[in-house]
Fold these 2 entries.
Entry 1:
Amino acid sequence: MSWLAPLRARWQQASRREQLALLGGATLLMLALLWLLAVAPALATLRGAEPQRRALEAQLQQMQGLQAQAKALQAQPRLAPDEARRLLEASVKPLAPSLQIALAGDRATVTLKGMTADALTQWLAQVRLNVRMLPAEARLRRNAAGTWDGTMVLNLGAP
């Protein structure tokens, strides 16, 4: 408490006007600290809450849509391997120069040459929905023309 003694002495020597000015300055400083440490961060969080809620709601809707699509795909009956092979070959024919297929047992190896990203995504969606297959392996690379080359392996016996 010895360090407070000089401050008390100085306070008592100050005029009423100086004391009020010091109290006002200290009050202003305390209010500024309160604003910076407590109120401003809370207001910033409050301002950002609504856009964040909307973004999360949109993400939830998208995830629920994907969940419904996955459940619908799981509910579909399995295709016989011969039927899956026939549907897979039929999906490749329209894309013959860019897409070739080689069947070996219950595996189908699809070779891509210069296939555009849009065509590839449409073909994969068609295979997923109609043939009910997903790639087991994929080795794709983008070439200088911006199209895709590589191979994909599909398991015909897989759901």
Entry 2:
Amino acid sequence: MGEILIVRHGQASYGTDDYDRLSPLGHQQAAWLGSWLAERGESFDRVVSGTLRRHRETLLGIGKHLEHARPDEDARLNEMPFFVIERLFRDRHGLDETHARADPEAHFARVMQAWKAGEISGSPEGYHEFRNRVLKALDDHARHGQRLLIVSSGGPLGVILAHLLGLELAAMTELILTTYNASITRLHMRRGGMRLTQFNAVPHLERPDRHHALTWL
């Protein structure tokens, strides 16, 4: 047996000139998570994150309170290039940003469907390439009998859960849209594969004075 704990990064800086950095709240979310893990006596044999700044900053925040092994980085755990894909989608259909903001969740779902169908030319990465590199990274880092901490993003987490649960794209999209920042997902390793045992848990944010920290973007 073994266990994998996957953490989505803390709140990033959506709407600014550099999304790939944690907001002040994102830093706080990560620190609260590290404190909660330390209080529980959690320990990990290995730690790995994507290479994005928001991944590194989340792990640094966790490490303020939780001692852990020296982390490895793996670019295969990085987010899909969504902002590029979304811009290409809008260009293809003659849409401006106002259209995207009108119903962002529905817009996200449409972009994802078009991307998977191969309808967005010029994308730096195809949907199936994204899916395959995430699942290969998970397989490469998992070890029976060990506990692994992964810090990544909502897209890779959605791919992993869809794979384990046999979900179609629409359900995967819903999972991505509803995953909290700095949330915990747990997988138990067993013979023949992995089993989801916890999804989107935020026990470190469930105090009344932290409800403002329940964020998705």
